[in-house]
Design a protein that fits this description.
This protein is an all-alpha fold. It has a single domain, classed as Phosphatidylinositol 3-kinase, Chain A, CATH 1.10.555.10. InterPro entries: ARHGAP20-like_RhoGAP, Rho_GTPase_activation_prot, RhoGAP_dom.
């Protein structure tokens, strides 16, 4: 999935914004859940993006860890960018290794898309609006006003992560997929 998104996402206008066919997504999800072979290259890239967001939403406790939600959200209230980056790196160190590996690939994809935002209309802000709710959510539900505020802060965090991913995860993030 990530490889396809890396290849096709940068040249696809509205990637992650437009949804794939709900019927096709449901059918493919059932096949994937049952362990069947699925060739996503034959499907619309929007279907792949929708399936990927669904996969992220189904990670128990979120990939960024709902238990750390308050800490993630507070990062954006800190001083300068250097302080934010150091805080983010400390939080990343608290995540399971598998989450960190997946995050590096996710932000490698988002970076590739953002670099070509003039073509695909998906700058870091737009990407964050679309993907942030799939990366982190609070551990308990609260009032709609509080949830709305948290959602805005999570989007701001994901935008910052996308814009600074090379400094946060290392420059090699741009070559994780090699020459595709």
């Amino acid at each position: 999935m990530l490889s396809l998104l890396y290849q096709e996402g940068p040249s696809t206008e509205g990637i992650f914004r437009r949804s794939g066919s709900a019927k096709i997504c449901k059918e493919l999800k059932e096949k994937l859940d049952s362990g069947a072979e699925v060739d996503l290259a034959c499907e619309s890239i929007f279907v792949t993006a929708s399936l990927f967001k669904d996969f992220l939403r189904n990670i128990p406790g979120s990939i960024l860890s709902s238990q750390l939600c308050d800490k993630w959200v507070s990062v954006m209230d800190q001083g300068n960018n250097e302080e934010k980056i150091k805080s983010i790196q400390r939080l990343i160190e608290q995540l399971p290794r598998a989450n960190v590996v997946l995050l590096r690939y996710i932000f490698g994809v988002l970076h590739g898309i953002e670099v070509r935002s003039e073509e695909n209309q998906m700058n870091a802000f737009n990407l964050a609006i679309c993907i942030a709710p799939s990366l982190l959510w609070p551990p308990v539900s609260s009032t709609p006003d509080i949830e709305s505020e948290i959602t805005k802060k999570i989007s701001s965090l994901v935008q910052f992560l996308t814009e600074n991913c090379c400094r946060i995860f290392g420059e090699e993030i741009t070559s994780l997929f090699g020459e595709i």
